[in-house]
Amino acid sequence: LIYIGEPSLSNRLKMLEDNKCDILSGPLSVIAGLRSQVAFTKSIIESKLVLVQRKNNSSKPNGVVRNQVDFSGKHIYICENTAYSERLLHLAAEISDTIYIRTLMGYNSERMIAQVAAGFIDYAVCDKQVAKAYRDKYPVIDVETPVGFNQMQAWAVKPGKKILLDSLNVFITDYKKSPEFTRLIQKYITD
Known about the structure:
The chain has about 190 residues and is α+β, with helices and mostly antiparallel strands. The chain has 6 helices and 10 strands, in the order H-E-E-E-E-E-H-E-H-E-H-E-E-E-H-H.
């Protein structure tokens, strides 16, 4: 087993298409837009996108943003090659206002969170579990404002790889029943 730590979703998809890897692991949200490019395994966990912001921010005199309606007119940053812009565009339509989506080229989630913590940017969006993992390192950040509904997280394989997909699904089903999985969830996922 060789792990390739590629943060860019588009690069990961290209690697899968070019047979340079066999499995895409998380966080990978199960979204309709990817179903033509990958075959998703059974879900592993649920997560959601959250707004990453500083707890005390001079640009927010009334405190942290908690209501999605208050995203209107805000500049919200995302990492390149994520599906997060699609969710923010849908949210902008739902609140009938503009959300300025800014993409940080070459950034991963940790680097983007560090930019928020340092005060270089006010708002960013990333996966809740990823954001929560950095709360201890960046105690000034708040990650409690959801951007959307819960999303299933899964792994993915190239379409047509039925034997690999079936094997992974059996593994995931069995592993989710194990004490090891329970310990991982308690350590990294549960608040």
